[in-house]
Amino acid sequence: MVAVARTIPTIDLMKIRTDMGLSREKMARIVDVSSKTIERWEKGETQPTSRRVQRLYAGMQEICEVGLMVYKPEGLKLFLRSKLPDFDGQTAFDMLELGDTESVIGALAMDYEGLGF
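Above: the chain's sequence. Below: its structure in token form.
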């Protein structure tokens, strides 16, 4: 029997940040690390080791993928900055700071179906 190597999908941290229109400082606030840590991750010097941060980045990658299917890049950035009733008047960025990627993905899915924002 031949062993099959599992490939772990890579997450492009800088692409996520730029697709979302975030500075390193804002991204650092969202994931609760320093902006220098964000810089090191983006340069590939180190990688996030916290499961919480890894899950958050995976959720943010999904938000970018779905968001760019629903909106053009500037529309996604507007969605992320807009205070929405779905988030009790908060922005998608506020929800991300709370670690709630699922609500943001859900709102984007509703937009994809034509039922939201």
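The chain has one domain: 13-112.
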